[in-house]
Amino acid sequence: MNALEPVKTAIRMEHITKRFGSVVANHDINFVLKKGEILSLLGENGSGKTTLMNMLSGIYYADEGQIYVNDQPVAITSPKDAYDLGIGMIHQHFKLVDVFTAVENIVLGLKDEGRLDLKKARQRIVEICERYGFEIDLDRKIYEMSVSQKQTVEIVKVLYRGAEILILDEPTAVLTPQETDKLFAVMRNMKADGKSLIIITHKLHEVLEVSDRVAVLRKGEYIGDVQTKDASQQSLTDMMVGHAVALNIARPTPVNVAPRLVVEHLTVYDDLGVKRLNDVSFTANAGEILGIAGIAGSGQRELLEAISGLYPISEGSIRFHDPKASENAPPKELVGMDPMAIRKCGVSMAFVPEDRLGMGLVGSMGMTGNMMLRSWRKGKGAFLNRKAPEELANRIWKELDVVTPSTSFPVRRMSGGNVQKVLVGREIAQDPAVLMTAYAVRGLDINTSYTIYNLLTEEKMKGVAVVYVGEDLDVLLELCDRILVLCGGQVSGIVDGRTADKRQVGALMTRVEGDSRHE
Amino acid sequence: MFDLVSFIPRAVMQGIPLLYGSTGEILTEKSGNLNLGIPGVMYVGGICGVIGAFFYEQAVPPESMNAVLAIGIPMLCSLAGSLLMGLLYSVLTITLRANQNVTGLALTTFGVGIGNFFGGSLIKLTGSEVPSIALSATSAYFSKGLPFAADLGWFGQVFLSYGFLAYLAILIAIVSSYVLKRTRVGLHLRAVGESPATADAAGINVTRYKYMATCIGSMVAGLGGLYYVMDYACGVWSNNAFGDRGWLAIALVIFTIWRPNISILASILFGGFYILYLYIPSGLNLSVKELYKMIPYVVTLVVLIIVSMRKKREDQPPANLGLPYFREER
Description:
The structure holds two protein chains of two kinds. Chain A is an alpha/beta fold. Chain A has 16 helices and 20 strands. In chain A, the strands form four sheets. A six-stranded mixed β-sheet of chain A has the order 6-7-8-3-9-10, with helices on both faces. Chain A has a six-stranded mixed β-sheet with strand order 16-17-18-13-19-20, sandwiched between helices. The longest helix of chain A is centred in the middle third of the chain and has 16 residues, at 177-192. The N and C termini of chain A lie far apart (61 Å). Chain B is built from 14 helices and two strands, in the order H-H-H-H-E-H-H-H-H-H-H-E-H-H-H-H. Chain B has a two-stranded antiparallel ribbon with strand order 1-2. Chain B starts with a helix and ends in a 22-residue tail after the last helix. Classes of the chains: A alpha/beta, B mainly alpha.
């Protein structure tokens, strides 16, 4: 036991850079995982955590830089290479065959000698389970299992292949608190057995509970690391969100502010009976941009869908003050109306999910065809009115600088930024009273993002109530007049976009007590 | 009275081509490839066997024919023909990622066209009066039953009276079932059909499994065409006589919930339905006979409706059936 001997590293990544087109996902990252430690990789959405880890598991290959495993330089070009090096990654989306049993999934792909001997395999699996304390029914089919059981199968699968280094990508996102405790116990057992673990998460209390060391990424860059015992929720939040960056987004003072959409005590459950929104109340004002901040999956999607009538509402009310109605007319209740009727009131939604084409656009149609998705009811009789959508498509093409050879070019083959321009442009052209956008600038370069910000601001000045669900706190703070922060389906605060600072919003996102200021 | 002892052998002989076809299609579908070209593949398997047998019969006088060559040449020709069809389908759908349904249907049209073209050419070559070729010498080798079958009464007639290709079909079906269920290759193949991305991540070569399963499946199906001409039709080839057996074979795949061992009985059952009209007294009224001829199709429709209502996950088609696999597209 020579004290001078340096701690050997399980993984060392040097000067790693990874780009997707013009977007830099990881920039010049130096990262170390020591043997026998649990390291938390912390960062906001889109900070490049998963990309970095995917380079270790062989899904992506770094554009620049060198990876060392056990101090040996390696090239990881496929998931198999990663397995051979003893690196196993448990993805958020499980890679399991649904109709196979746990055992069959665990042995899948292994080229052991001789015939398929599930009995022998089972013995080894049982040994692994006993050693680390997994509870698992090996003969159960995957489709009969709960999410946490599936996760257990994934972890056992990785261990069965002899992994010494385990990477868990947001493993607790889908678990109940009890299941999380169990997982952490297992992780500590694995650590005691000499394995090295990386856990990707953005839940600070979990970071503090389970890890030895925390490494923080922000916007694709490595910010630094800190021993968990020296860290607090506050210090980690500061590292994660960083200092304010001046973006210089034009933010004119709102004029003629009036309530447009009043949401009160909104509660929704998903099909599994999990509460997705809990007693959410807020007002979206005409002539204002209301930002919605929160960690991914805090209920943003459910909120927008509930307002547009796409998500079943179990409690609460959404009242809409129609600008076209007379002064004293009572507001309209949107709960219980069908999506088409809500849309007719002028409540418009441009949702940009991970898969941009999934909601809102038809990939194989051109711009004109996609414009018609909103206007097909306007034609006479059985015939479509093609002229108006064609004109609209041409207008969006020109005004928003959409790069496409023609308005009939399939939108699927445009670049992401252009697709988003088409989507947002179309929604704005409907002349909405309420415009809701989610992740409108996801994956876009700076210039296109600014185009979209300006569009939203223009709409605001026209007296539209704009709801902007965003990921980047800097943008939210510079673009929005007020910011509503969601955390776990609840409103953890509504702050003024002009006076709030990043720390305050970051704290609300992760539920650290800050001086939250209700309006 | 219904004559079971003569009905069963005929039902079996009707069922064997269906069994080859469905076993081949099951192997293919387990890899996630929906090969609707099976009718064409079986047709090509048949005509290629005919071509081989035709030239061998032309080259050698009947009395000096060698049993091994008389069986081996048509069989190799048939296997080679259906392998080429399987390869064509694989290249188009796996490597070039063409739409599987369109490719399959095109392959069926193509296969039938090829068969009829060569069939017609051979008929021209023989210069015969009737639009068919008779290869009775070769057929005699293929349809030879066990010599002692005739001595065993009804038992011999029901179980032992068939040509060797019938027993081979049952053997292939049993082996296929075993391989799919019990071996590592089978496990990997099923994984490829269920979730190629999972299989790929587990280090299984998805492309190779898809190619192998599709080509082997085609070869098995092609043997069905060969059996039909050489044994069932007594070596007589006439264009379009093969009929819709290929489609019935594909329907059988769903009926048997992707299990070759169940297909053994199911094929014979369908074979029975196919000829039932001959055994049901219908008098001289021909239109009634035509109604009875519809039985297999009506049963297929009913069965498709019933099996579509199944809820059990194991009885569903492979989850990725009909979809191409792209590693980059996640």
